[in-house]
Amino acid sequence: MPESSSFETSRVPQLPWYALLVRSRRENQVFNQLLGQGYECFLPVYKSERRWSDRMKEVQQPLFPGYLFCRFDIHNRGPVLMAPGVHQIVGIGRTPVSVAEAEIESIRQVLASGLPSQPWLYLEVGQRVRVNHGSLENIEGILVSFKGGHRVVLSVSLLQRSVAMEVDLSWVTAVSEAKKPLRAAQERPVTAPVVPVLS
Prior knowledge:
Elements: E1 6-8, E2 17-22, H1 27-36, E3 40-51, E4 56-62, E5 67-71, H2 78-81, E6 86-89, E7 91-92, E8 95-96, E9 98-99, H3 101-113, E10 128-131, E11 140-146, E12 149-156, E13 161-167, E14 172-174, H4 183-187, E15 195-196
Antiparallel strand pairs: 1-3, 2-5, 2-6, 2-9, 3-4, 3-5, 7-8, 10-11, 10-14, 11-12, 12-13, 13-15
C-alpha cells in the first residue's frame, strides 16, 4: 500500500460522492478496479500496528471497513455495481443517497493533519448511551453537546428533572432504543445540582 493516509485521484466536483458497500478486506482491490475504469475514488486509511509472530508491523487499514467512496453519475451506475467486490450503493432502502461534500472534505482534512486517527463507534447527540468507565459505569442517559464538550443527561421522569455529567466520548457506547430503563437514575442518589428539563 502507498505511504499516504488515503487513496484518491484528481477531483471532479460536478459529480456527487456515493458510499459503496464492498467486500470486506477487499477495499483496496475494489478501489484499484474502479480507478482503472476511470472513476474518482476515495479510500481513507489509518495506520495500525499489527503483531506478527516475531515483530510488530505498521500497516494501513481502511478507516471505514467494508466501504469506500466514489464519484459517479447515479443514472449510469451499472458499471460501478458490476465491478468485482461491489455489493451495493449505500442509501435509504433501494434509493442511493449521496455523501455530503463537506463530510468528505472533513475526512481529508483529518487525514492530512497527520494526527492519529482510528475507526470509532458512531454516536449521535440525542442518542441513548451507557457509560463504561469509572464511578459512572453502567449509568445510562442521553448524549448531549454543551460548550464544545459532551454530557450524559439522566432524567427522573416522575420529578421531570434531569442532571448532566461531563464525559469523554470514549467512555460511552450506544444503547438499543428498544429498552429505556430508569434503573440507573432511580437506584443512584442524585448528588449534582438538579436542573429543570427544557421542553
